Amino acid sequence: MSAKRILIVDDEAKMRRILELSLKSMGNTVVEASDGMEALSIVEKQPIDLVLTDLRMPRMDGIALLAALREQGVDVPVIVMTAYGTIDTAVAAMKLGAIDYIIRPFEMETVEMAVTRALAMQAAQRENRFLREEVSRGWGEFVGTSAAMQSLYELIRQVAPTRSNAFIVGDTGTGKELVARAIHEASGRTGLFVPINCAAIPAELLESELFGHVKGAFTGAVRDRVGKCELASGGTVFLDEITEMPAHLQVKLLRVLQEGCIERLGSNGTIPVDLRVVSATNRDLQQAVESGALRRDLYFRLNVVRIDVPRLRDRHGDIALLANHFLHKHALELGRATPRLMSHVLQRLESYEWPGNVRELENIMERAVVLCRSGEITLAHLPAELSSESPGRSSSSSALADDPAIDGPLDLKARVEGLECRLIKAALERSANNKAAAARLLGISERTLWYKLKMYKVGS
């Protein structure tokens, strides 16, 4: 844990000195105040990570200090110390926001443990707040802030309010249906969003699924049935894997799009429909047309606006955000605390090619949550293809490979600063220059990152 600035508030100079020595030995910076009034003045002037305060002090006691901090909206964890460890005192302090209390006299180990626990809790809260803020920079149900995703969000915003059909192209697992739903939800259309996977329904049943049928149309048709296209009238029908639709049904779909009406199987009558069609495929569109898997005239009807969904390996800056999002999602489903993703595990995730895209990442994070019992996700919780070290893929070995030859100058300070500067530049590039995300990748605070950027004159 990096050094923190801790404010000790106590009217006894000797006690402040004892606490100062102990907390400094833990690597922290210590600021002192003799009462609540002085403490408030300090908090107003400089950032404080933790307040350790006595309860009984002149001018302003610990309870009054707690109340003042909360009234001013100061979000800092507070531990109270008291020789009057009654239930009433503890309850009053906790109600005002204290996260722990210590009864005097105490052993210094007790203080150190309380401080360590409080700082860890604060770090977790800040991380959760960071995640919520980052997710809010996505759009709708999407998670991602990369340039590729920002372009996708903007294209959806432009397409959604129109009546134009859209064709979504992307690898398996990239979230094509999520894009289709986003288009529908932002369209203002009042009808249903009706998804149909053309590859999952047997060809002999697909026509009835799409257009419906009347009683007696075929053996087993014991009653009339409304088709998905009719259900989607006034809304959006999503035809996933449309290149798997049989050719004769593509002809019927083309007629529906041209004439604005459907004909149920076994019926001679037509039913008007108001359809907006969003289609998707994971195949190469031009190749599908040339091979005859998709009729050329239907292709031109459907492909008014083409939307390409980026692969996960093309949006590496989103991997940390997505991984933590899925960890939180599945931990919540299992009723567990969200485990922490260790930095070396994140590096492994970011070096992987992700052939299964976002869907594969979610499955791996769900697996990790199920297997994790320690509160920290390690390489042991990942599947074999990610947990074993691939030759030449180690993050540490790749970093060292870029260093000057070992028989060069052995100036340790210069070597360390050079490597640190390169890592900072790599983190900024990987996070699309998002400082908060870069700091997270590096395992440092955003404040520390800004300081190092200034020191190394990066981005200036």
TrEMBL record:
Does Glycoprotein appear among the keywords? Answer: no
- Give one Pfam hit by family name: AAA_lid_14
Q: Signal sequence span per UniProt?
A: none
Q: Keywords in alphabetical order, please.
A: ATP-binding, DNA-binding, Nucleotide-binding, Phosphoprotein, Transcription, Transcription regulation
Concerning Gene3D superfamilies, the annotation shows: 1.10.8.60, 3.40.50.2300, Homeodomain-like, P-loop containing nucleotide triphosphate hydrolases
Q: Which InterPro entries does the record match to this protein?
A: AAA+_ATPase (IPR003593), AAA_lid_NorR (IPR058031), CheY-like_superfamily (IPR011006), Homeodomain-like_sf (IPR009057), HTH_Fis (IPR002197), P-loop_NTPase (IPR027417), Sig_transdc_resp-reg_receiver (IPR001789), Sigma_54_int (IPR002078)
Q: Where is the Response regulatory domain?
A: 5-119
Residue numbers carrying 4-aspartylphosphate? D54
Sigma-54 factor interaction domain location: 142-370
Q: Which PANTHER family match?
A: PTS-DEPENDENT DIHYDROXYACETONE KINASE OPERON REGULATORY PROTEIN-RELATED, TRANSCRIPTIONAL REGULATORY PROTEIN
Under what name is this protein listed?
A: Sigma-54-dependent transcriptional regulator
Q: Which organism is it from?
A: Rhodanobacter geophilus
